[in-house]
Specification:
16 helices, alpha/beta, 3 domains, Rossmann fold, ten-stranded mixed sheet, two-stranded parallel sheet, single chain
């Protein structure tokens, strides 16, 4: 049962329960919802200072996305590590869901399960992990766009996903000409490669359109050239940060044509923020398609003791996760480095892995990106290593076996 309940769904229920409890005047409703909230806080998540602080901060600010992400990580740890789950958790969530349905009218009795408008169904989640969701390639007929397409073809041959070329134009562009050129490219690819490929022409802002299309189609990931990121950044200011962090889906940023036909090696930098372990799910999914050996890089000479402890805690959790899912890995301490970015860049420069997987917090300002924030340094690395950017998890899902009692 543990693997059939998502941390995102628990958070969704918890958030609605907190907001209703704060706004209702009914004492019975307040008491029932508080019992659910306290169950999750005391009996479900771990009793560490960090986890409890994350819970209290979320209770006080349930609409804050960064605070939400921190608590979501602790709930995910509880779901993965708890051996007892969790008929009691199901019962508690059913209590909250019944009240939520009464107060908001969001639950529809003829549905299999209670779903908010932003939730994915379990079928969508399963389809995404097994193959069938599109790989989106923003397409502008440039050389770097062709690099991205070649990487997408490399992945699609294995994952059996379809490729969607996304061409974004303004209102004054010639749609017929663009469509003719795109169809020509599709025809050429179909003759050479056994993949499903199509195109979409959209009118709008490039960044918002990429984000909206990725979320709407529930894509596996977006493959985009690094120079496209740089060019977009110069012209659109602070929205550049959102082109990657604004979606529910990973981005793979590439700088050159694929060097190999498969993915054999990948680097996962160990960071200090606990939210960064969300990238491990993508490593597991990647390994379901490719025989990957992961290198966990960690700086050896961290000066700040508190930061060093946090990194070691995340390393310990990452190793447990790797072992649990039978993922091949090694741990490499990088001498002469003090922070995770420096360690990762040093390793990929010397070893040329096929991919690097990083967590993008989405909190950097445009000034950080222009001046070279840590995420930007990794994405535009001088080694030319493709980088998968994993965003804070916001996909809401629920298992079809997990039904709300009415």
């Amino acid at each position: 049962m543990r693997d059939n309940i998502s941390s995102e769904f628990v958070i969704e229920i918890l958030k609605k329960a907190i907001n209703i409890r704060k706004n209702t005047k009914d004492k019975k409703t307040k008491a029932l919802l508080m019992s659910v909230i306290e169950y999750i806080r005391i009996k479900f998540i771990s009793q560490t200072k960090l986890s409890q602080r994350a819970f209290i901060n979320f209770y006080n600010n349930p609409d804050n996305e960064r605070i939400l992400g921190k608590l979501e990580t602790w709930i995910d740890i509880a779901l993965r590590d708890g051996d007892y789950i969790c008929e009691e958790l199901v019962e508690q969530i059913n209590v909250a869901a019944k009240i939520i349905s009464k107060e908001t009218g969001e639950y529809k009795p003829d549905n299999e399960a209670w779903l908010s408008p932003t939730m994915m169904t379990i079928k969508e989640v399963q389809d995404k992990e097994k193959g069938g969701n599109p790989i989106i390639v923003p397409w502008d007929f440039s050389e770097i766009g062709r690099y991205a397409l070649n990487h997408a073809l490399k992945y699609a041959k294995v994952t059996k996903d379809r490729i969607l070329l996304l061409h974004i134009i303004d209102e004054n562009s010639d749609v017929k000409t663009a469509s003719k050129k795109l169809q020509g490219i599709v025809n050429v690819i179909l003759k050479k490669v056994d993949v499903e490929i199509s195109y979409l022409i959209a009118v709008g802002n490039i960044l918002r359109t990429i984000t909206q299309t990725a979320n709407k189609h529930n894509c596996r990931f977006v493959v985009m050239g690094s120079r496209a990121v740089e060019g977009v950044q110069r012209f659109t200011g602070s929205l550049a940060v959102k082109v990657i962090s604004g979606t529910n889906n990973p981005f793979i940023i590439v700088q050159n044509n694929p060097v190999s036909k498969t993915i054999k090696t990948a680097v996962i930098p160990i960071e200090k923020d606990i939210e960064s372990i969300q990238k491990l799910k993508q490593a597991r999914i990647l390994s379901s398609f490719f025989d990957v050996k992961y290198t966990l890089t960690i700086p050896e000479d961290v000066v700040n003791k508190q930061v060093a402890r946090k990194m070691l805690t995340n390393l310990e959790y990452t190793e447990k996760y790797m072992k649990k899912h039978n993922l091949d890995y090694e741990v490499v301490y990088i001498g002469g480095t003090q922070e995770f970015t420096q360690a990762a860049l040093t390793y990929i420069k010397d070893n040329k892995p096929d991919m690097m997987i990083i967590y993008t917090s989405g909190k950097s300002s445009i000034h950080d990106y222009v001046l070279g924030a840590k995420e930007q340094r990794l994405i535009i690395n001088q080694s030319g290593t493709p980088v998968m950017c994993v965003n804070p998890s916001r996909n809401k899902c629920i298992d079809k076996e997990f039904k709300i009692k009415m």
